[in-house]
Amino acid sequence: MIGPDDWMAFRDVRLASLADAPAAFGSTLADAQRRTDADWEAMVRARTTSDGSALWLAELSGAGTIGVVAADPNDARVANELVSMWVAPSARGTGLAQRLVDTVVTWARSSGSASVSLWVMRGNDRARRLYESAGFVVVDRQAAPDDPCRDEIRMSKVL
Known about the structure:
Elements: H1 7-20, H2 29-34, H3 37-49, E1 54-60, E2 64-74, E3 79-87, H4 96-110, E4 115-121, H5 125-133, E5 137-144, E6 147-158
Parallel strand pairs: 3-4
Antiparallel strand pairs: 1-2, 2-3, 4-6, 5-6
């Protein structure tokens, strides 16, 4: 788990994730690149010091940051939301994604959450299979907030 002083590392991995997989996220690389350092620092501070929120970075010696995942509060702290997950192409297929999901689930359970939910873009079959293997089930669908022509799938796991 990272703290507020790690905002530059989070910024860098977030920019990498948006460049690598733009269709997987609700925000765009262009929007993220317009943020100032103060914006990034404030965002990471809020996510790392608020109840129900946390950020994790996966690092590999010599390769830098190769993964990221976050948890945000949802449903009045009864549940957590798994968000912003990404694994670098060089680390895909290594089990890192499963470890990141497990980290959020374990943290949410220890925080007293009753469930963890997430959104995954329709067509992101690899991610959906990962979440299903971790015990998440489809509970809803909606048009993506940034593009009504794309669909998001809501998945949830009862803890």
